[in-house]
Amino acid sequence: MMRIDAILSRFGYCSRREAALWVKRGRVTVQGVPVKSATVKVNPAELMVDGEPVEFVNGLYIALNKPLGCTCSHKEQGELVYDLLPQHWLNRSGGVSTVGRLDKETSGLLLLTDDGAFVHALTSPKRHVPKVYEFETSAPIPAEAVALFASGEFMLQGETTPCLPAQLSITAPCAGTLTLHEGRYHQVRRMLAAVGAPVVVLTRTAIGPLRLADLNLAPGEWAEIDPALFS
Ligand code: URA
Questions:
Q1: Do 89 and 11 meet the contact criterion of CB atoms below 8 Å apart?
Q2: Given CB 3.0 to 4.6 Å as the disulfide criterion, which of 38, 170, 178, 215 pairs with 5?
Q3: Which atom of ligand 1 is nearest to the CA of 189?
Q4: Ligand 1, atom nearest to 190 Cα
Q5: 163: buried, middle or exposed (CB in 10 Å: 19+, 13-18, 0-12)?
Q6: Max CA-CA distance within the chain?
Q7: Do 220 and 108 touch, CB atoms closer than 8 A?
Q8: Is 214 in the active site?
Q9: b/e for 63-78, b at 16 or more Cβ within 10 A?
Q10: What is the CA(53)–ligand 1 centre distance, in A?
Q11: DSSP assignment, residue 174?
Q12: Per-position DSSP letters for 7-37, written without gaps between them
C-alpha cells in the first residue's frame, strides 16, 4: 500500500504537490470511484489515472524496435531513443535506461527498463547473453571469417583480450548474421571491417530467447516484455 501522491510521483505522472489537484479534478480513481484525498494509501495496482491503470507497477520492461538515426543516450544532441517513449515513463523515480546500446546507425531490438539490477544482469560480462545481428557489407565476406570468429582467438585492434567465440553465418556474398556473447564497442562493425567486409546495414534481431520477428513491431514501436524470459 502506498500514498496516492507517492504513487503518482513514483510512476512519473505528476509531482506529489500536483497530485492533490489531479485528485480534486477527479482524474484518480479506485474501482471506478474518484479518490477523496491524495494522502490515502492504496494498492498501486488498483489505482487508475484518467481511466487507465497506473503502468508497470512491478517495473518497466520494454522491447523497442529501434529506428535508424536515434541515439541511445540521455545527453547527446539530435533524436534520442527516449524521445520515442511517453514522458511519464521517463519521469519514473528510477528513470529509464537502455540495456546496453545500439549505434545511431544500427536498428532493431533494444531493451529498456527502470530496473538497474535487470540492466546489470543482462550486460554483465559473466552472463554471455547471446545477441544476434543481421548485416550487409560493401564487400564479400571471406569464408575464413567463420572459423576465425569462432576460434576465441580473434583480436580486435587496440584490445588486449580476444573476442569470445562468435557464430558467423554467411547468407549471401555480402550479407550474414553474427551471434555475439559479449558487447564491445562497435563490435560487429569492427569485426567485419577487420576481415575486409565493412558493414553498411546492421540490425539486431534477437537477445537471448527474445526475437524481434516474434514481436511484430514497426520501427519506433515497443512492447512490454516479461523479464523472467531472461532469468
Ligand atoms: N555492434 C556494432 O557494431 N554496433 C551495434 O550497434 C551493435 C553491435
A1: no
A2: 38
A3: 3
A4: 3
A5: buried
A6: 71
A7: no
A8: no
A9: bbbbeeebbbeeeeee
A10: 37
A11: T
A12: HHHHTTSS-HHHHHHHHHTT-EEETTEEPS-
Catalytic residue among 5, 103, 114, 115: 103
Using one digit for the tens of pLDDT, what is the confidence trace for 94-148?
Answer: 899 999 999 999 999 999 999 999 999 999 888 899 999 999 999 999 999 999 9
Beta strand pairing call for 61-66 and 107-113: antiparallel
Q: Which pLDDT value is given to residue 120? A: 93
Check if 180 has its Cβ closer than 6 Å to any atom of ligand 1: no
Mean pLDDT, residues 209-224: 97
Query: What are the CB-based long-range contacts (under 8 Å, 24+) for 1-5?
Result: 1/41, 1/42, 1/43, 2/41, 2/42, 2/44, 3/38, 3/39, 3/40, 3/41, 4/28, 4/35, 4/37, 4/38, 4/39, 4/40, 4/41, 4/42, 4/47, 5/38, 5/39
Which residue blocks in the chain are alpha helix, DSSP H?
A: 4-10, 16-24, 87-90, 116-123, 144-150, 187-194, 212-215
Closest CA to 145 of 199, 101, 107: 199
